[in-house]
Amino acid sequence: MYKLNSLKCGLPVLTATSKGTESVTVHVFAGAGSRYETQKERGISHFLEHMFFKGGKTYKNAAEVSMAIDSFGGSFNAFTGKEYAGYYVKITDSHTETACDVLSDMLLHATLPEEEAKKESGVIIEELRMYEDTPMYKAGWDFEELMYGDQPLGWDTIGIEETIKAVDHNSLMAHKNLLYTPDNMVLVFAGNITEEESIRLGEKFFGGLSGTKQREFPALENKPTKKVMLASKKTEQSHLVLGVGAEGALSDNYFAQNVLNVILGGNMSSRMFLRIREARGLCYYVASSTDNYMDTGALSVRAGVDQSRLDEAITAIKDELLLAAKDGVTDEEVKRAKEFLKGKLALSLEDSEERAHFYGRQQLLYSGTDRGMMDIEDYFQKVDSVQKEDINSVAAKLFTPERFKLVVIGDREDEKELEKLLD
Hints:
- By secondary structure, this protein is an alpha+beta fold.
- It folds into two domains: 3-206, Cytochrome Bc1 Complex, Chain A, domain 1, CATH 3.30.830.10; 228-420, 2-Layer Sandwich (Cytochrome Bc1 Complex, Chain A, domain 1).
- The protein has helices spanning 44-52, 62-70, 96-108, 114-132, 135-148, 161-166, 169-179, 195-206, 254-265, 271-278, 310-327, 331-348, 352-366, 376-384, 388-398, 415-420, and strands at 3-6, 12-17, 23-30, 75-80, 85-92, 185-191, 228-232, 237-246, 283-292, 297-306, 405-410.
- The chain has a six-stranded mixed β-sheet, sandwiched between helices. It has a five-stranded mixed β-sheet with strand order 7-11-8-10-9, with helices on both faces.
- The protein is globular.
- 46% of the residues are buried.
- The mean pLDDT is 96.
């Protein structure tokens, strides 16, 4: 269960109380990320996330910020996605006020010093290079570029070196003022805390938030028609992502897609794991996943295989997807997948951090839509309502040869040869 209130400044405050735990997670969500950026700003949302940890009025630098939480055994972190960003502290319930003090100082009173921005640009460029040197990560980035092209949804959240080097105090502050406003943020308290205490702490530490949201992310433009992206690189393995465009988080087919994903490659009893890894011995890792944005999505399978068996792996994965489209799924698979989804959620929500994310993300992204907010029971009901026919219809719609897109990083040279494998 959750309780929703608003501070006097308009900031929504959501309380997701959980007894039987000594932890509280204080989590702030903001409608910010790479979808909100222009070409000249690529990476600024992620850069700003880093800079919030550089200090404010009370905790004046990164050392003071980290020591304030570390001294109580707490954990804190942040992330930047394409449609939202988050900042959280997880701590014992007796130190919840400290968590609020640190987060509010970071977000409301960030100084974003110029000298720190110059240093941090080097850190972020090294982070970028690290991911570019890690094919498992880079293949996923390339797949989104292949799917969406040169528009915000196709850009990496981390940005590019040219724009990272250009970020300064003024551009950071301007971006903060655009999006970090009460009408574009959500404050969540999850764990061993009452609704009354959440409101009190919210007003005390976050009541000074002001401003109004000044930017919406642009509508998705036409997607590119290119089917294959190959990055030739001397690697021990070839890393591949094979997938299709899918429907977004607001679609009526959202839950059917997620159940289908579990059946295909969402766990160790999935088709991909048992048939591609266990039966064929083609790879160590193989899994499917869904990307669910507000207005679009993707369902993809990724794997790492021996260079000599790349063609075999691509064909095997493609054939599994086509088989799902042709013959559908079984009643037993649907039953297992539903119970898996419900069980994973139930177990994850025992953690106050996961509980905060479950509710806060929904409030930020879906509260003003037809989908709206879902409690745990609502989520379970949506999962249970999925019928085998719904899944079969989605599979038949998604998995056709002309819709397949493929990314490969490995010791190959000819994209055309790879494209033939998708026919």
